[in-house]
Design goal:
2 domains, three-stranded antiparallel β-sheet, 387 residues
Amino acid sequence: MSAVALAILGAFTVDRTGPIWDSETYFRMAAGGGLLNGGLAPFCFRILTPAIARLVPMRLAVSFELINQVSLWAAGTLVYWLLRARGLRHETALVGPCVLILSSFSKFVLWYRFGVDQLALLAIVAVAWALAERRIVVAALLATIAVLGKESILLVAPFAYGELRTAPRLRRNLALCVLATLAFWAAAIVGFVVLRMTIPHSAGEGSIAQTISNWARARLGSPKGFCELTLAVPKTFGVMPLLMVLSGRRTLAIVRREPYAAATVVTFLLAGIFGAADYERVYFLAIPFVLMICLPLLETSQLSPKEVVAMVAAHVSLLDVFSPPTFLDLPRWFMTNARWPDLAAYAAKVALWTVVLKIVGIGSTLKPQGDGGWTQGGASSKPTRAV
């Protein structure tokens, strides 16, 4: 399924860019300009992707293309196994790779081929999968490697704590759980600090508090900024936020069952709002945890053809996945580049699809039980969680 989705996306992302923006730094690092020497450009401590591209015995353009393709394919495959570990049926879990790969994010990383977001996404999905499968040592090792590629892996901390907290040996001992959490992240944090301190860069000038304060004033202090970051949610995740809002109490029941996945989604959203220029790229890294909350809504539903058609049409429309990647039309990619007419047009699209989904019956198919499970025709079908 990952390979099929990737082939479909590739057909609509034939064009590729050369090294631009931050990717000029990563290309230079991979080309032999000093992987550990740093420079004036920001984020040159993200050495993993350039290092891998440098090791592949091919032209750099081909090396980065291979990294992109393999990362997206592997992320789609692992998100399927993550959802299966969470108790979802085979048919429902297959939606995961499609949503992950057929996305604006994936189209962007294929077009912006010398970037590092593809490995960041793969790392987050891989660590989440290993944690869900109770392979704690493997997850810690993957997190330590991942932090060499992008520090966003540290945002998985709430989910990691939740999985450690429910481990058989730790669930009844809070002190032991805290120690295990610190041990889990120790190597990753040390590796990140060492890279930041030893490689010269221009990122993060000023304190974290100053960065948060600056973004808060820019985004929360104006109506336009608030509209941008709100509309960026469906712009990033398509129809899924609409399904969760329309499902109301059923979504809340899943959140109660998956509180740490929900907390991780919130962590990524806040990191995008208060610490990134293009916050959709940070938003999307929460996709495995969004799927954990959204897909159980469909687990026992008997969707009619019109409901399926409405959901697919809304998803494609909200993401513009199959439109050509004309990056000069920046508002179609990132809300931070939108103007008021763009925001109004997209808000109208969101409102229209919300009404359409409500009319066809989305959100009223399932009825929650008191224990947070689901009923369909009176039969309980609460998915069991793998431990």
